[in-house]
Amino acid sequence: GAKVSTIDANFIQGSLETTDVNTDIAINGKGFFVVEDSVNDEDFYTRAGHFIIDNQGYYVNTQGYRVQGYLYDNQGVSLINTLSDIQINQNSMIPPQVTGNINMALNLDVSETPLVWNINNPSGTSHFSTGLNIFDSLGQSHQIQVYFTKTADQTWQWNAVVDGSDVQGGTPGVVQLYGTGDINFDVDGQLSTAMPVSFYTGAITFANGIAPPATTIDLTDTTQFGAASVIQVLNQDGYAAGTVSGINIDEEGNLVANYTNGTRRRIARLVLADFPNLNGLERKGATLFQATTRSGDPLYNMPGLGGMGNISSSMLEESNVDIAAEFIKMIIIQRGYQANTKVISTTDEMLAQLINIL
Question: What is the percent of the chain with per-residue pLDDT over 70, rounded to a whole number?
Fold first, then answer.
């Protein structure tokens, strides 16, 4: 009789379907996710990327097997190239960072008439101003207002002030000097003053008892052209303490934690596996496979490297079975079965008639 000699799995990639779950992922290209049964210390390989974060913070599949990857250091910079469980501590806190540098670029209108700045009338004795927040060593924010006053044809003065309510011994509503400096321009309107310079040049203590940080300000790209004064770039590198608010996964397989203070930090990077002989893999359930001597040892690499596919987040790979084609095959087989049945039935009738004749 007939028998099945082998059944080979079809590893052709299925289409990708969008989901609303940011921990769902799909591989766009070659490779398998690596998951580990931590109870039995067994590795499995799968294309099914419906993963969740369990109550211990582990990134797991529906069976609780832990997704494997390379972990980043505490700063989210350097990878530790050892296959490990991916775990996200959603109660972790990122410490504050004091403001060390302010980067500011603006155009200052060359047509302004020179003035002498007066701290008692900062708005009336300046031509332009902008506000910014800086962070101290405790991660507390302080509002600083910076005034720009043209004092000569190619010279401007900047003066930074802080409200007295944020200063020890200060009076609310009465500003105190935080920092000051001059900036010079050449005949082409380009800044000629060396940068960066100290932003804090005053003599105050914040109301919380903390000394102002040793911050620098960089105005390198500031110009003096015949156009309205306008701020073009303003950023600083400090931030408050923050806790995890969400997780995103990029196409390179990096799991990135988003914090409530607006910062982002990489936690881990997924690792994918490939095999010399895919048909040598042993199926374990609906979507899991294990390596065998026929498949060869797994070849590990990160998404996008070494021929591995990229990661598509909030997507799942659908079955690669072509339903329409399978229905057609089923109908053809059914028609063949019906035809064979009729042949047998006709043969039986002919034999019966022959017997009757005899």
Answer: 88
